[in-house]
Design a protein that fits this description.
The complex is a heterodimer of chains A (495) and B (525).
Chain A lengths: L1 H19 L12 H20 L6 H25 L6 H15 L7 E5 L6 E4 L2 E5 L9 H16 L2 H13 L2 H13 L3 H36 L7 H10 L4 H4 L4 H5 L28 H4 L9 H11 L13 H20 L3 H14 L4 H20 L3 H4 L9 H12 L4 H11 L14 H13 L4 H13 L6 H4 L2 H8 L1
Parallel strand pairs in A: 1-3
Antiparallel strand pairs in A: 2-3
Helix pairs in contact in A: 2-3, 4-5, 5-8, 5-9, 6-8, 7-8, 8-13, 9-13, 14-15, 15-16, 16-19, 16-20, 20-21
Chain B lengths: L1 E3 L3 H12 L5 E5 L1 E3 L5 E6 L2 E13 L4 E10 L4 E10 L3 E8 L3 E8 L4 E8 L4 E8 L4 H12 L15 E5 L3 E7 L4 E6 L5 E6 L7 E10 L2 E9 L8 E8 L5 E6 L6 E11 L4 E10 L11 E8 L4 E8 H5 L5 H8 L3 E9 L5 E11 L2 H9 L7 E12 L5 E7 L4 E4 L9 H10 L5 E6 L5 E8 L11 E8 L2 E9 L6 E6 L4 E8 L4 E8 L3
Parallel strand pairs in B: 1-5
Antiparallel strand pairs in B: 1-3, 2-35, 4-5, 5-6, 6-7, 8-9, 9-10, 10-11, 12-13, 13-14, 14-15, 16-17, 17-18, 18-19, 20-21, 21-22, 22-23, 24-25, 25-26, 26-27, 26-28, 29-30, 30-31, 31-32, 33-34, 34-35
The chains are: A mainly alpha (495), B mainly beta (525).
């Protein structure tokens, strides 16, 4: 009886603690067995699919094919093992959409979808696995658009584009004609590099042509697959419109650095961003290969061309311009942004993590405490890498391919000294918290880690030791434990 | 020089390498071999504004190879590649110079035994090409050989004795210097390589002359001139000289080592543009003392106006002026016989003068030292390199502080006869052969911040031993601070190069993997 009472009491405490945790947090499951099993299953399936069929061609062809198969299987294993997002909200939602597509297209049932923590807006198909990056979700407006992306990838699977591409490329590469050309170039002795480059460019042109043809097929078949579902087919056109500007949102809103960090000794520091360094070269832009500059050599046609094609395919029945976002999908987008932010942080892209956290602050009050924690943790990591002389490994260079606002922010980041981070952290801590619907508890993992980071950055880091002990006691399997207190660090500090 | 691997795979990888590099790093594959001189920083004034990488690619025809000139900006962003076709395996880039409007690339053509210069505009379009010397002296050949084969830390000024030098003159052109041990030659070219003026040792001169260019500032080219009556003579005397850049006329030619009361050795000479003064720095000895056997008495600063008139000489005696300010570590080293080699003299934005020096002495068994000093044998004598020192003088040349930065001692073998050279010259010998840990001093365009870079490792045991890249940071906005980078890596060779302010560039070359990585490292200031 006493045991039951104790259990009820414990459950009550657990429940109270669960309620105090804000809703807006990225998903974390310390148990990785599920991801491991899933990764193994997809690796096995891919290998079986690629290597099951009898291989044509000569021995070089077959060896090369097997090598690529093994590499692809390893890639898919690693992708799923270390970044599969198996949560109950986002994954459940995208799986539901995927199921609806499959219900409308019963021949596609043996294909599986995996949602992964990758901040880049992208999706792709490998074998019978469709991989969807969580970074794609915030760029879309409704389920129909997501359904079209998935239909496009399913079309690749249905058309066996991977196998066809592999076969075409390897056949060309290991053909007699190619061997003869390579032998001819090598035997000629002169200008081998430039002639090889020409040959490679020729191969690229040929493979790009075939790949572009596949993309067009996938656009077309994907549209047909979408039409067979209950989703709105006109949204296919709008999907391409959105993908065309997928990189743009980052440049629209620049976090107000002066608001967050411009106090005390740092006042005025962020009023104007440092001017870009003037180059002594007047060469027109950075060197680009033809693969970057020529549309006909890209794997995917320009979105404008794809949209025009789809426009014709849909007979003008298209959705254009901004679409209303339903509350349920808006919730998905908000959650996926948290996953994107966490993904930047987990992959040690602290410049992106800090930038996205600052952008998130005014936009998602419910995620206020989480975004604030990531700001403090990013500042801590940036300072750490700076003192370890690894700053340039975790911070991008300010350069023209980056959006202008992000480049400006990077220049500011590069100007900061190690001693500045204590002030930045202190300034940021003074900022009033957003009136979030559910406040973060002091014992929340992120809040506690952020307090540790701020303490470690402060001029007197003594309180950090106490917070470190508290974190390690409260979160023995915490998400941030490895990053903040890796075993080597723990041992070093305890000695 | 870089040598690219000639294979199908390499082409693909090289293409990949060309499009990467958003971060301040670059990784290149398929590099068969690499020496330190494969990469040269491009300076605009005092600041690094880019890098030039020179590599031998493949055969162009029966007699020529394709060579790649890869230009990078200060953030390691690839700017462009220029391909030139030159004699197979016998064409070397010695140096580059940028004068604000044009790049000059200085080559050695081993096939034709010529020195050649090519100029390019800032859009990297070729302006001119010229063989500037068809008569390369033995001394220059020795310098070229040393430059091509040096893979250890050498740092700036390591070609001191070769006489080979190409300096940019802002907006005007380039000055080339040449030497054969008997006479010096200076030639000024415009951006299109038209000769503007030539200055050389007078044909009737009784003394042999050798010029080491130290600085091009404002209107002047400055250097130290060494004169002796014959090649075998031990009566070597140093002069500071300055030439007017617009005419080539010599405007200053003053003896430095002549004194009735002391022996002076010259370490460096600079120009104070604000005061329009030439400033020479070195150490001094008693007339009866022998360098290295006896300790120097102190260092001196000698000033001349721009007409060559002596304005004054100020000695700083170790015991009287210096010792009181010396940190304990430096005092201990001084007691052990270490003397200082001045690497650079920097004028801060607030008028302060900074002398960057490194301690050294001759080490080895007693007989070896004696032989080294007397000119015979000396097989076991070594140059022992000690701590870094920075002397701070206020605008009135009052010594206000001395900062000592302790390093592990490192050693280098000295050749027989090193002792004949005199204190300053022996230091210059160690300098020329890359024996010092000091690498370079980099500074902001406004002279407000300086970074003295050194690499500390045991040169006898090689780079595989513990290696530290030290950065001594100081200036008008900074207190003295040392930022030490762990320089240990699995690389076959590692090099450190100057970079944009607040950074250094580390380069690792892995021979087995045929891979080279360039990385900008932000310093802790």
């Amino acid at each position: 009886m006493l045991r039951w009472l104790l259990l009820v009491l414990l459950l009550g405490i657990w429940d109270a603690r669960a309620q105090s945790v804000p809703v807006s947090r990225p998903y974390f499951m310390p148990d990785t067995v599920r991801a491991y099993k899933l990764a193994r299953a997809h690796r096995t399936a891919l290998l079986a699919q690629l290597e099951g069929a009898a291989l044509p061609g000569n021995a070089d062809y077959r060896n090369h094919y097997r090598r690529i198969s093994t590499e692809a299987a390893t890639d898919i294993y690693n992708t799923i093992r270390y970044s599969a997002l198996l949560d109950t909200v986002l994954d459940a939602a995208v799986q539901r959409i995927f199921s609806r597509i499959q219900q409308g297209n019963p021949t596609l049932r043996d294909v599986e979808l995996v949602l992964v923590r990758n901040p880049e807006p992208n999706a792709y198909a490998v074998g019978r696995t469709v991989v969807l990056n969580v970074g794609l979700l915030p760029t879309l407006e409704n389920e129909s658009q997501l359904a079209y992306v998935l239909c496009h990838e399913l079309a690749h699977v249905q058309s066996r584009h991977l196998q066809t591409t592999l076969h075409e490329r390897l056949s060309t590469l290991h053909s007699r004609d190619m061997r003869r050309q390579v032998r001819h170039i090598v035997q000629a002795e002169y200008n081998i590099n430039s002639r090889m480059k020409e040959l490679v460019m020729g191969l690229s042109l040929s493979s790009s042509y075939h790949q572009r043809r596949h993309e067009r097929q996938a656009d077309s078949l994907g549209y047909e697959l979408l039409r067979r579902t209950s989703y709105a087919a006109p949204q296919a056109y709008r999907t391409l419109q959105l993908l065309d500007v997928a990189d743009a949102p980052a440049s629209e809103t620049n976090p107000e650095l002066a608001r967050y960090f411009g106090c005390g000794g740092l006042a005025g520091r962020f009023a104007t961003a440092p001017a870009p360094a003037k180059s002594i070269f007047t060469v027109a832009g950075p060197e680009k290969t033809p693969l970057q500059t020529t549309d006909t050599l890209k794997s995917h046609p320009d979105c404008a061309k794809r949209m025009a094609y789809l426009h014709g395919l849909a007979g003008g029945q298209i959705a254009e311009g901004p679409q209303p976002v339903a509350p349920a999908f808006a919730r998905l987008r908000d959650l996926s942004r948290l996953e994107v932010l966490q993904s930047w942080f987990d992959t040690e892209c602290y410049d992106h993590a800090l930038y996205e956290a600052l952008r998130l602050l005014p936009q998602q009050p419910a995620a206020d405490s989480y975004a604030r924690a990531i700001v403090q943790l990013s500042l801590y990591q940036l300072r750490q890498r700076l003192t370890e002389h690894r700053f340039t490994e975790v911070v991008s260079n300010s350069s023209s391919p980056q959006p202008a606002a992000f480049s400006q922010y990077l220049r500011t980041l590069h100007e900061l000294r190690a001693t500045d981070y204590a002030d930045l952290s202190a300034c940021f801590a003074q900022l009033p918290t957003s009136p979030a619907p559910v406040a973060a508890s002091d014992s929340d993992e992120y809040a506690l880690a952020a307090r540790y980071a701020a303490a470690a950055l402060a001029p007197d880091p003594a309180p950090a030791a106490t917070l470190r002990r508290q974190y390690l006691a409260d979160y023995p399997r915490g998400r941030l434990r490895e990053l903040l207190f890796a075993e080597s660090q723990i041992k070093r500090k305890s000695n | 020089m870089l040598q690219f691997k000639r294979s199908f795979l390499t082409v693909g990888l090289t293409l990949v390498a060309a499009v990467t590099g958003l971060a301040q790093t670059q990784t290149l594959e398929g590099i068969k071999s690499m020496s330190r001189s494969a990469i040269t920083p491009i300076y605009a004034g005092h600041e690094v504004k880019g890098y030039l990488m020179y590599g031998q690619a493949d055969k162009a025809d029966r007699k020529n190879d394709n060579y790649h000139l890869d230009f990078y900006d200060q953030d390691l962003g690839k700017v462009s590649t220029v391909t030139i076709q030159k004699p197979a395996g016998k064409y070397y880039l010695l140096d580059n110079a940028f004068n604000g409007s044009a790049f000059a690339l200085y080559y050695f053509n081993q096939k034709d035994k010529t020195l050649e210069i090519e100029t390019y505009d800032t859009g990297l379009k070729k302006l001119a090409s010229k063989a500037v010397s068809t008569d390369i002296s033995k001394m220059e050949m020795s310098g070229i050989g040393q430059k091509m084969n040096t893979n250890n830390a050498g740092g700036e000024g390591a070609q001191l004795f070769s006489g080979l030098d190409l300096r940019p003159v802002e907006g005007q052109g380039f000055v080339r210097s040449s030497a054969d041990g008997r006479r010096y030659l200076l030639e000024m070219y415009d951006n299109n390589l038209n000769l503007k003026w030539r200055q050389q040792t007078d044909a009737k001169a009784k003394m042999l002359e050798m010029l080491v260019v130290t600085e091009v500032t404002g209107n002047y080219l400055m250097g130290t001139m060494m004169r002796r009556p014959s090649l075998l003579s031990q009566q070597l005397s140093s002069y500071i000289v300055a030439f007017d850049l617009s005419t080539g006329k010599k405007v200053l030619d003053q003896p430095v080592e002549s004194s009735k009361t002391e022996q002076l050795s010259l370490s460096s000479v600079g120009y104070d543009a604000a005061r329009k003064e030439f400033v020479a720095v070195g150490e001094y000895y008693k007339l009866t003392d022998k360098p290295f056997v006896n300790k120097s008495q102190g260092f001196y600063i000698k000033r001349f106006d721009d007409k060559g008139k002596l304005l004054g000489i100020r000695p700083y005696n170790w015991q009287k002026e210096v010792k009181g300010l010396l940190p304990a570590e430096a005092r201990k080293a001084m007691d052990e016989g270490f003397i200082n080699y001045t690497h650079s003299i920097q004028k801060g934005a607030d008028g302060s003068l900074y002398l960057v020096a490194e301690q050294y002495r001759i080490g080895g068994k007693g007989m070896d030292v004696a032989l080294a000093v007397l000119g015979g044998g000396g097989g076991g004598a070594k140059g022992i390199i000690g701590n870094m020192l920075v002397f701070v003088l206020d605008p009135e040349y009052k010594l206000t502080a001395i900062k000592c930065f302790v390093k592990d001692e490192s050693k280098m073998a000295l050749p027989p006869g090193a002792g004949f050279m005199g204190a300053g010259l022996t230091g210059q010998f160690i300098k020329a052969y890359g024996g010092f840990d000091y690498q370079f001093t980099q500074q902001t365009a406004a002279n407000s911040q300086f970074n003295v870079v050194y690499i500390n490792f045991d040169k006898e045991k090689g780079e595989a031993t513990k290696k530290v890249v030290g950065n001594i940071l100081f200036g008008t906005t900074d207190q003295f601070k040392v930022d030490k980078i762990d320089g240990n890596s699995a690389a076959t060779y590692s090099y450190v190069y100057p970079a944009k302010p607040g950074y250094v560039m580390l380069v690792d070359y892995l021979k087995k993997q045929k891979q080279m990585g360039m990385k900008l490292v932000k310093l802790n200031m």
